[in-house]
Specification:
elongated; 74 residues; 3 helices
């Protein structure tokens, strides 16, 4: 596995982990924090959703997951 492939996998796992992180609800009872003009919870999820979209849009551009000819022959 190449270094770029490892980086993309790490970013995908980080994105998924932070999307489902239950600790975000610790901020629910605070003084109405806002992110991008939205309540904190919505802004937090939208940020990670955009992050994941960006990573998954970059992945096909760099042929992530497609084996090279040298790897197929091994």
């Amino acid at each position: 596995m190449s270094g770029l492939s490892k980086l993309l996998w790490a970013l995908v796992w980080i994105g998924f982990a932070f999307m489902v992180f239950p600790g975000v609800f610790l901020f629910h009872e605070r003084v109405y924090p806002l992110i991008f003009g939205m309540p904190f919870t919505y802004g937090y999820i939208m940020f990670w959703w955009a992050f994941m979209c960006a990573i998954l849009a970059i992945a096909p551009k760099v042929n992530w997951g497609i084996k090279k000819k040298e790897e197929v022959n091994e």
